[in-house]
Amino acid sequence: xxxxxxxxxxxxxxxxxxxxxxxxxxxxxxxxxxxxxxxxxxxxxxxxxxxxxxxxxxxxxxxxxxxxxxxxxxxxxxxxxxxxxxxxxxxxxxxxx
Length: 97
What we know:
Layout: H1 4-16, H2 35-43, H3 48-55, H4 59-67, H5 74-84, H6 88-91
Helix pairs in contact: 1-2, 3-4
């Protein structure tokens, strides 16, 4: 498994490529607060709306996690970690508590 810094750099590289995949629109006014989560979703080609459905929350909730730096509830953190295959300390590394 890659360490946190490698994942952080990978997510920055994925974001630097721009919206080259069909399912991702280019960001206009949003600033990505959780670059690691966004980078992993981008690299796995998972749309935010599809991810929201898998976790069982609204699309707006997932947008808060990615773009506003919100932290999910504990039960949602477990689902997210299971779905993506990464531990919490990696997926939410960018967030300051």
